Amino acid sequence: MSENVTFHDLKGQSVFITGGGSGIGASLTEGFLQQGANVAFVQRSDATEFAEEMGKKYNNKPLFIKCDITDIPSLRYAMKEAAKAFGPITVLVNNAANDKRHALEGYTVEEWDMAMDVNLRPHYFTAQAAAEGMREAEGGSIINFSSISYMMGNAGYTSYVTSKAGITGLTRALARELGPNKIRVNALLPGWVLTERQLDKWATPEDLAAHLEKQCLKEHLAPDDIVDATLFLASKASRMMTGQAMVVDGGVVVTG
Fold it and tell me: Taking every annotated instance into account, which residue ranges of this chain make up the domain Ketoreductase (predicted)?
């Protein structure tokens, strides 16, 4: 959720978020609900309890649809259900990803394809599915979550880094194609955000200290730090921004 900003134009907007029931995605769902938006989200795991909690808190229950985003027909169906519930999707947030670590040696074709199926392919097909409704609504905003990992050239999860670089390229191509229809497409590149998953799996004291040393701002990122930037890209406050890669990382990498 956001304690810093209010974007009045997001009230009543139809928002669709992938992976919107946990980690950064859960914070995004709450952030949009706080703005008065109508939110539908997909998640592979059960997020019924989270949706109920949000509904009670904001008197505006998000629509949770259980869905594996590697199953494109199911993902398309979920988006149709969201549009039935809240009207044409006008804000699409492609957030879901899997940053599983792996070595070069022994990594199989099937594992590589699955990484792309989770981390890159859905971004294209959700945009394809949302574009028609956004045209009817005379505009919309697509926000694709990339990562600074590819700008840093991080090792240890090559398929993830590759997919995140691809998302930035996809974003720029879609921005050019969809711009005449007043559909904006931007990439958001978080730094190392300390979700429960990160803390449980990879955030050793040594690695945390080393990463913080790279940041200009000496404070680790939390999921809520990504919310305000996402709301900005969704809002007409950024109406002339498209095809951009916006970094929120505490000052590790630089653009421009």
Answer: 13-195
Six token digits for residue 96: 């879901």
Out of 3.40.50.720, 3.40.50.10490, 3.10.20.90, 3.40.50.10420, which CATH number does the structure's domain 8-195+222-248 have? Answer: 3.40.50.720
- Write the CB contacts of 183 (distance below 8 Å, at least 6 apart in sequence): 131, 134, 135, 139, 140, 141, 142
Phi then psi dihedrals of residue 105, to 5 deg: -70, 130
Instruction: Provide the residue count of the chain.
Output: 256
Q: Which of 93, 126, 97 is nearest to 15 (CA)?
A: 93
**Which pLDDT tens digit goes with each residue over 168-218?**
999 999 999 999 999 999 999 999 888 888 887 878 889 899 999 999 999
Q: What is the value of pTM for the model shown?
A: 0.95
Query: Exposed (0-12), middle (13-18) or buried (19+): which is 3, by Cβ within 10 Å?
Result: exposed
Beta-carbon contacts of 59 under 8 Å, excluding residues fewer than 6 positions away, are none
Catalytic residue ranges: 160
